[in-house]
Amino acid sequence: MTQKKQLIVLLVLLVVAGTIWYWFYRDKTSAPTGTVSVAENFQLLSVENPQIHKHRLEEARKTEYKSKGRNIFSPIPPPPPPPKNPIPDSKTPDPIPVKVVTIPPLPVKFFGYGTVNGSARRAFFTDGEDVYIISEGEVLLNRFRILKVNNASLDYEEISSGLRGTANLEEQGAPPSA
Asked: What is the value of pTM for the model shown?
């Protein structure tokens, strides 16, 4: 290759490099007005007080969940509540008689209750010779769950049917005198 051809190739390469340099490093203010940069419209979020609100944390820690009877882990909404005061209508048929289901009484005698060092109340039951001590929430005879131990009564639920009942505190008779 002659020196003249090398000079022409060098000039062409310099023109191409100059054009590329011009397009990359030219003034950006000459951009069309239709384009908008994200950085131009960026605004910081307004935060009134960025410090930790300790009083709100304490309130949240002390909050106790109270259920409305709905399973919070199920996406199915609960059924709507029945109307409180249905107005009888001549078009609606008479209501179907409801079968009254009674829960069987406890097969043991509830004779007292107590607590140990501030724990849940424990109910005392007897079945002749055997004595059972059951805390609130535990199961009695694999059939009844003790829901609440009150001063004069006991609320329980039959596990298989879900029916609830109440047992009254039974007084112990005085021993026979000699």
From this structure: 0.42
